[in-house]
Amino acid sequence: MLRTSWRAGHVLLAVGLGWWLVDEVLTTALPGAWGGPNIGGGLLLLLATAVGGLGLVAVLLSGAGLDRRRPRWWLPVAANAALALVVVAARIVLPGDSGPGGWDSGLNGVTGVAVDDTGSPVLALAVCYGSVDTVSVYGPNRGDRPDEPLLELRTDEPVTTSALVDLADPGPRWTCGDASALRLDQQELVIATAQGDRYGLAQVAFSAEQLAALRPGEVRRDANGPSSGSQAPLTVPAAEFRDAVCGGPAD
Length: 251
Description:
The chain is α+β, with helices and mostly antiparallel strands. It has five helices and eleven strands.
């Protein structure tokens, strides 16, 4: 009975530790799509922790009465100890749910908003690493009604540093739908962001009143942005926006 509990405990402990390792790898490889309770992985990690904890309890309870004269009784101990060291090393080496430079999971920069000489909204994309190739614009979330898609722009030339995107006239680089849906007199709030294959920019939300307060050449970002770059001013000159967000010029 003790031998069975000893072996079963080590198996459960290995399953728990193994999933911690898998979760760390998936969180790093698939930022924004894995990790955390809202985007997958969170519940599985809790279950793995419970399974591993149950296995550890079984090992401790059965180990006290185990006959250590039996050959190779120490093998499962050594195997799980080695696995635990690998998990610790992975959590130290891999960025997990923090991207390069301490960015939040799946984020690689910030979206800002500016205006042209006519007061029309222009998005400022500050990409700190990686790239983005899709700009999405939504209307406000009205409780039980999700954010209303207003416009999506795509490009075959991904943005790797910074770009200004005039929503009324994006230019030949971007393919888009009907920009007339962006009439701000019919929208109490507009939310804009940009995404790539692996990462996305922190969103910016703005209203007609906020646009009216901007001067051409200024870029405004949201106050509740990601942890990295949070010390950047809320409004900066367009030419300095990426440096302010990313902490320096592009490499």
